[in-house]
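tokens incoming
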């Protein structure tokens, strides 16, 4: 009953419920004014935030190698994926590309919209969006909606532009 009433209110008031995967540090940068120490919990955190008439259920799936195999347990019903790449780390970009491609091959994520935050664009040797797009192999994604947004998380540059794009794409569904 509660779910039905919630769905009814969402339709009346125009809010949509969306499930998004993103890292915790990005979550705190986007949705709080507090600085958070990099402490990785044993489990995953779940937060709900509202942005542009969409309620995002955000699953913090952190990037530690040990917990990456557990990510797949959180993929079901995910409509959007925010993948953050360090644009300044040329040595690890292939590792990021491999992880992204593994995730995108998961059946539960086949319909998820992909937003890539090309972070650390303030650094002098940061890869531009076009180069990062190429290195991640995104141009080969024919059946997926995706976008790469240049960002600098410490300054907040580009973060809301990316969320605006994601909100717009998810509102079409």
């Amino acid at each position: 009953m509660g779910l039905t009433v919630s769905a009814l209110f969402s339709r009346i008031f125009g809010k949509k419920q969306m499930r998004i995967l993103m890292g915790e540090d990005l979550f705190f940068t986007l949705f709080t004014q507090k600085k958070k120490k990099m402490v990785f919990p044993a489990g995953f955190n779940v937060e709900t935030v509202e942005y542009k008439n969409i309620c995002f259920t955000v699953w913090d799936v952190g990037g530690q190698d040990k917990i990456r195999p557990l990510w797949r347990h959180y993929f079901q019903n995910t409509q959007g994926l925010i993948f953050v790449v360090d644009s300044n780390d040329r040595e690890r970009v292939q590792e990021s590309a491999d992880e992204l491609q593994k995730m995108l091959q998961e059946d539960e994520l086949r319909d998820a919209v992909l937003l890539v935050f090309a972070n650390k664009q303030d650094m002098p040797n940061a890869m531009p969006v076009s180069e990062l797009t190429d290195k991640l192999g995104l141009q080969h994604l024919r059946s997926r909606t995706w976008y790469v947004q240049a960002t600098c998380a410490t300054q907040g540059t580009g973060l809301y532009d990316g969320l605006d794009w994601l909100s717009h794409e998810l509102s079409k569904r």
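note: The chain has one domain: 16-171.
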